[in-house]
Amino acid sequence: MIPPRQIRLDTLTTTKRELALDTLLAEDSTFYGDLFPHAVQWKGELYLEDGLHRALRAALQQRNVIHVRVLDLDTLVPAERVGPPTATISVQPPVPDPQQ
Fold this sequence. Notes:
Elements: E1 4-8, E2 12-14, H1 21-25, E3 38-42, E4 45-50, H2 52-60, E5 65-72, H3 73-76
């Protein structure tokens, strides 16, 4: 449902800590999955959720841009609605002293 769009590689922040070389070098790595990497935009940052190997392959081929499906959470959840506003947080009454 989310169409892919061109994203510069230098604007993506990765979320994976490890890179599997067998996946990177496999020619059929996208045979069963989506052809496009998936990213999430949150507070103006683009986080690469899936597709690190495809992004690295593109970088190794001297490409600066790849097509990515981006879920833009900034438009789905406005920044002012991320947490409850301070005015709606209820104040708890003080705990009574057991000695009294």
